[in-house]
Amino acid sequence: MQRNILIVEDQRLPLKALELAVKRTMPGEQYDVARCYSDAEQQIARNSYSLVLLDHRMPRDMVCTEEEDFDRFSESLENIGYGLIPAIRARNPAATVVGTSSLGEQELAGFPQPDYCMGKTFGQAAKELEAILQKIR
Questions:
Q1: pTM attached to this predicted model
Q2: Cβ neighbours of residue 91 under 8 Å, at least 6 residues apart?
Q3: 12-25 vs 124-136: helix axis angle to the nearest 10?
Q4: Which of 46, 66, 127, 134 reaches 20 to 30 Å from 94, CA-CA?
Q5: How many whole angstroms separate alpha carbon 69 and alpha carbon 90?
Q6: Which helix (H) or strand (E) is 116 found in, with range?
Q7: Structural contact between residues 21 and 51, judged by C-beta atoms closer than 8 angstroms
Q8: Statement: residue 1 has pLDDT above 50
Q9: Can you give the residue range of the structural domain that contains 118?
């Protein structure tokens, strides 16, 4: 089954872990990447994704990466990613949204919630994504 996949992750290493998870669990599948809220918002407006791996704490705009200026990058982070879930659902009501935030339940309360949650460390991400895919197939 061909999927239209979006990975929304601002940090380099978690992004690499999520990309590897997609490549291992869905070989040959193409995916898009957004590294900040505004990029994700634009891609969601243009595409109807069936699977979205979505971080919550991210910069609104990518002013710099964590490697370029860690302090400035850290100061730009906001709890806004899950606010994209209504836009994802508006484009494709059947989309599966997988939250990848490491924040706790209290910090995520009051935001739209993803269908599933998974980790974003190497090894863990592929294992958890495979378990989610087994549920939705």
A1: 0.93
A2: 44, 45, 47, 48, 49
A3: 50
A4: 127
A5: 35
A6: strand 116-117
A7: no
A8: no
A9: 5-136
